Amino acid sequence: MELNEQILLLEKLTGKKVLLEVRVRSSNIKDVDYNKDSKDLKIKFMNRPDSTYIFKNVPYDIYEGLMKDKSKGKFFHRKIKNKFGFVMQ
């Protein structure tokens, strides 16, 4: 069962929205959080751990690709950086 299917099942069973915040293994990225309703992808970088970058309108498959890729930093530079608007928090 794919991660997205697991989330949908959990939401159906609990009646609550599931937000994912995942600490990742990366020399560049510290934490990743995705909200599938708003399509906001939140990323904390190792060199700026007190700042959160919120990338807007990111499709779920981009989030899923980031989480599956062995090199999170390279994926970020290829598929996310300069492709989605963002705000800092």
Q: What can you tell me about this protein's structure?
A:
The protein is α+β, with helices and mostly antiparallel strands. The protein has one domain (18-88). The chain contains three helices and five strands. It has a five-stranded antiparallel β-sheet with strand order 1-2-3-4-5, with helices on one face. Helix 2 (60-68) packs antiparallel against helix 3. The longest helix has 12 residues, at 3-14. The N and C termini lie far apart (34 Å).
Shape: globular
Strand order of the largest sheet: 1-2-3-4-5
Overall pLDDT, averaged? 87
Order of helices and strands: HEEEEHHE
Structural class given helices, strands, pairing?
alpha+beta
How many strands? 5
Summed up, the helix count is 3
**How many distinct domains?**
1
Q: What profile does the largest beta sheet have?
A: 5 strands, antiparallel
- Report strand %: 25-35%
Distance N terminus to C terminus? 34 Å
Q: Approximately how much helix is present in the residues?
A: 25-40%
Rg, Å, rounded = 13 Å
Instruction: Show unreliable segments.
Output: none
Brief rundown of the structure:
The chain has one domain. Helix content is 34%, strand content 31%.
Layout of secondary structure:
Blueprint: H1 3-14, E1 20-23, E2 29-35, E3 40-45, E4 48-55, H2 60-68, H3 72-80, E5 86-88
Antiparallel strand pairs: 1-2, 2-3, 3-4, 4-5
Helix pairs in contact: 2-3
Question: What key attributes describe this structure?
Answer:
5 strands, alpha+beta, 5-stranded antiparallel β-sheet
